Amino acid sequence: MQLSRVVDRLDEELRTADYADLDASANGLQVGPDEADIEHVAFAVDGVRETFEKAIAADADLLVVHHGLSWGGIDRITGQTYDRLAPLLEHDLALYVSHLPLDGHQELGNAAGVADVLELEDRTPFGELGPEYIGQLGAAPDPYSPDELRERLEADLDTGGRPVPVLDFGPDEIEDVAIVTGSGVDWLDEAVAAGADALVTGEGKGKVYHEAKEAGIHVFLAGHYATETFGVWSLQEVIEEWGLETTFLDVPTGL
Q: Which positions carry the signal peptide feature in this UniProt record (predicted)?
């Protein structure tokens, strides 16, 4: 399949253009020629030298990632930026990036994947960002205790065996759960306003401890990497259905 066809189909599915004014990430094709023949697509959470080298070793033609290289532009291709770009250019490996569009997709996205793990029902978009959303809100069919929800996350997310930290300030029974993966604690107020008993995200900030305590809501910090594997996994399944060979590159950060 031609690279332009792969990119167009991904951009359409992910509504990439709708996030152009909302996301610092340059979503879509970040590195690559106008045209190339794509037979093998690799997937990873992070576009970094390690995943580039693994994709090259797997003989991939295209690498699809959640976190790319360009965040508000690249001024100079020197130092670490040069070292990261060099393997892509030397081996004709194209790079496609989907950051907030992949967070916000209500079926294929990262929050949707976490909601699947928790078997949430009656889901609605959550995590308002301008006219778009980057998370999900749903209801557990049977209430979780805080320990039960933590154990489910630890069992089903790629946390690297580390425990999931919990700010245990909410009710004894958790029914309504808000999810914004990665760095999502800035949506704590929205979770409270929506009546959520818990917010599941990847990583915290110092201020969230007292904010959660004063609001009476649980916060589960399940790991930035661990909460953001789901989107690229889902895209891998989509591209396999297009008849292309795929490989997932697991490079966990433990964060």
A: none
Q: Which residues are annotated as a binding site?
A: 66-67, 103, 224, 228
- Strand-pairing partners, residue 71, are 25
Nearest to 164 by CA among 175, 155, 174, 176: 155
Same fold, 3-98+229-247 and 103-225: yes
| Binding-site residues for a divalent metal cation | 66-67, 103, 224, 228
Topology classification of domain 3-98+229-247: 3.40.1390
How far is 203 from 185, CA to CA, in rounded Å?
8
For residue 34, pLDDT over 90 is answered with no
Per-residue pLDDT at 215: 98
96: β partners: 29, 64
**CATH number corresponding to 103-225:** 3.40.1390.30
